Amino acid sequence: MDTITFPITLIDKNKLLVKIDLRIYAKESVNAACYKFTNKFFVNQQISSESESVINVIFESKNEENISEETIKSFCNELIDQQVRYNTNLQFGHIRDLIVEEAFKPVNQ
Using 50, 70 and 90 to split pLDDT, how confident is the model at 6? Predict the structure, then answer.
């Protein structure tokens, strides 16, 4: 069995870099996933100097604790969740808009 490698680089004991491919995830999904982690981490996003289709996200612990593997896995799951939400909105968002429009139409007597 091959070893699974993640696009993650440990910068320091409490700081790491995650490379996210924009061919897979929308920028909006990346922003939403990062936002969910701002309570525990300082988060910085940069376009990679290697490729414009890659965003480098740097997480730095606010309390100087080591960043755990569980946290990284949680971020990866959150990123997928946000992308599914984004895709669902693209596909079905117009239906939500029609429902809201209908709900707020003036009532004729």
Answer: low
